[in-house]
Design goal:
Largest sheet: 10 strands, mixed
Strand content: 25-35%
Shape: globular
Radius of gyration: 30 Å
Number of helices: 20
Number of domains: 5
Bound molecules: zinc ion
Amino acid sequence: MGSVPRAIRESCIFAVAVLALSVCPALTGQTARRNPIDLYHELCSVSLDEKQVYHIRDAALDREDLHLYLSDGTIAFTKAVDGHITGAYFEGDGQVLVIPPNPGERASLGVFTGLGVLDETFHSAYIGFNDDTPREIASHLRVPEDAGDFVSAHQEAARIYGEHDALRLLLSFTSDLGKTEDRFLHVALAGRLGLFTVAYDSLAEDQIVAGQAVRDAESDEMNYNLWMAFPASQARGRRESDRVIDPWRGFYCVRTNLTRIDAKLLPPEQMLATADLDLTVQHGGQRLLVFELSRWLRVERVTMGGQALEVLQNEAIDSSTLAQRGNDLVTVILPQILHSGESLKLRFVYRGAVMKQVAPGLVFVGERGIWYPNRGMELSRFELHLRWPAEWTLAATGRRTSLKEDNGEREGTWVTDDVIPYAGFNIGQYSRGVAQSGSVQVEAYASGSFEKEIASALAPHAVKKVDEASGAKDTREELALEAQHRALAVATREADTIKAYEAWFGPYPLSGLSLTQVPGNTSQGWAGLVFLSSLAFLTPAEKKKIGMDEFRAVSTGPFMADHETAHQWWGDLVNWRSYRDQWLMEALANYSALMLLERDDPANARMLLDHYRTILAARNESKKRQADAGPVTLGLRLTSSVYPNGWVNIAYGRGTWLIHMLRMMFHDASVAAGDPDPDARFLSALRVFRERFEHRAASTADFQHVLEESLPLSLRYEGRRSLDWFFEGWVESAAMPTLKLTQVKFTRGERNTVSFVVEQHQIPPDIVTSIPVYAVMPDESLRYVARIFVDGRSTRLRLTVPARTQRLVIDPYGTVLTDSDKS
Ligand SMILES: [Zn+2]
C-alpha cells in the first residue's frame, strides 16, 4: 500500500476499535463480569485520550430534531471505559440547529434567546454519548493535532461533563435495552449565548431538551432555565401509551403498588425509618432503579429478600449542587436485569434530620425534601406505621386504623384504601379543633406558637414575656386555649367548605381531613392531610396588625384553606398526568375556593381576579410582561431567572382565569337557554371529570374532552363540537389581548339590528375568543344579547338587539382575560 498517511491510519485504527465494539454490544455479558460501582467510578473520572486527538471537518450528528455540525476544528475522545468511548471535547467552528415543533416551545425558547429557532454557532463543546458516535464521524477525522496541549487544556472540562453523564451511562451499560431504544447525545456548548446544553435522550419523556444553568446574583444559587423540551419527531407520531420509558422518573418502567413505612420520629429533627416498596416492572431491560429522597436522609442499606444491594446516593452531585436541592437521587443496583411483568420488593433503611423546628412545638416536615424513597410524584397505596413521643401530636395522610400509647410513646397506623400521589405526616405541639361535615370528621391543629417574625409583629412584649417566663404554667395554658380557638375556626370553616364542594363535585373521598399548622407562607393539600400555613390561622385584625395588604389578607384567609381542601378532589383524588397538566389541579383548586369566596363575599372574589390580571399585565425588571412567561402547560418550567415567579403567576393567576372564562361561557349559554341554575351545566361537567378520573391521572386534553361532551351550541366555533379553539388559543398560549368595539351602526326598524367590529390586539394571529355582548337600556341597565366569536385581529358582526337599545358593550362584567379592565 506504500505510505499510508498517518491521519488515515489513525482514523482507521479508531474506526476498527469502534467497529469491534459495535459488533459486540452484549453489554449484559459485560456487566456480569463488571462491578457496577467500580464502573460508575471509572465513568466519573473519565479523561481525554492523547492518542485520540484529530482534526475534524464537516461532520454532522443528527438525532431526530437535534442537528449538530462540527465544521472545522480539533476533537479529542475520552479514554474507553470498559470498552466504551463515552465523550469527546471539540474546539473550532460548530453549529447546532433545533427547530421546536409547536408555538408553545417556540415561545419558550424566545423568552430566553429572543428567537423561535435554536440555530447557533459555537466554538467549543463537550459531547457525551452511549452509542457509536465515534464511528459515525470516523471518516471526517484527519491528521492528528498537537495532542498533548489540547488534551491538557481541556482535561478538566471533560472530567466535569463526564461526571454529569456517569449515572446515565451506567444505566445504559448495565441494561439490555436495545441500541435504538436507549440512545443519548448530551452536548454542552459555548457560543454567543454563553454556555448552554442541548440533549437528545430516547428514554426521556421529552427527548429533546435545551437549556442553560444561570447563577442567581442575589442568592448565588444555580438555576436551570429550560429553554425547550419536547418529544422527538418519531415519538410525536406515536400514541402516548406506546412510548417507552423515562429512566429517572420511571413513570413507565416501574410502578409502585404499595409503600409501607415504619418510622420512629424523634422531634424536633430526627427520624429512623424502614420503607418497604412493592414494585411491578412495566417495561424491563434495566438494572438500575433511581429514587428520590431528601438530602438530609442517609440510606444505611437497601435489601431485596434479605440480600443487600449496592446503592449510590448523591454520588454524582457535587456539594454546591447538593446545597440547593431538597431531594437527591438514590440509585439502587439490582442483581439482575429487570423483566417486564416482574414483581420486586425493596427495603430501604435510612435515617436523618428530615424535620426542622422553627418555633417551640412548630416544625416543618416537608421543607427538607421527601421523607421516603419514591420514584417522583406517583400514585401508590401507602401504609404508615409511626411512633413518636406522646407529648407531640401527629397527623398523617390516609385513614388511621390504630393508635396506642405506651411508656410515653405513641404508635399509630394509617392506611390508604386507594392510590394517592403522596404520603405525608405532620407533627407538632398542637391544640385541636373538631367539626363534622356529615360523616366526615374535620380536625384542625394549631400550634401555640408562630414564627418569630409573626409573633413579634403581633405582640412584641408578649413574646418577650413568654421567653422570660418559659415554662410558666398560666402562659402555656393561655396559649393553648388561644390555639384551640384558632383550630376550631379553621375546622368549622372547612367542614362547611366540604359540604359546598360535595354539592358541586360529588362526595368527599375520605372519612376525615386534618388541617395542620406549618411555618412559612405556603400550604399543601395531600389526601386527608393539609399543611396549612401559619398565616391561615391568623384573624383579619391580626393580619392588619402585621401589615398585610388586602390581597394577601384575603388570599391567606379561609380562601387558602378552601384551596387546600379542594385539592382533596383536584390533585389527590384526580391526579395530574405530567408536569404539563399540573396547572389544571392548581387552577381547579384555586377556582373552587374562588367560587366559595364569590358566594360569601363577591367583592373580594372580584378583587382577587382583578389582582391576578394586574400581576399578569405587569412588567418584570427586563420590561417583559409577566403573562409572556408562557402558557400554563409549561408547568414548573415557567419559573426561571427571567420570570422568578413564573409558575405561581401563570398556574394560579392565568390558570384561575382560564377556568373562570370556561365557567362564564357555560354560564352565559345557560342563561340564554333559560336554565334555572346557570352553573349547573359546568358543575356537572366537573363531576363527570371527577368520576371518570378518580384514583387516576388526567391530562389537560382529558379535561377538554369532558367539557366538549356537554358543550353548549353557542360555544361551537364554526359549528364543531370542539373546544380546540379555546385550548389551542388560550390554554396553549400566553394570549392576553386588549379588546376594542368599533364601527357600531344601529338599523332601527321592525327588528333592531346592529352591526359592529371587535378588534383584538396583542395576540397570536389566529386566536379565537368568545366574548359576551350586552345592550345598554334607557335606564342604563344591561341586557345580555349573545356570545360572539372574534377570530384573529378583527371580526365584523351583525346582531339583533332589544328595542330601545341605547348602546352596545362587550364583556362589561370582565369575564375575558384582557390586558386592561377598560375593555
Ligand atoms: Zn394548590
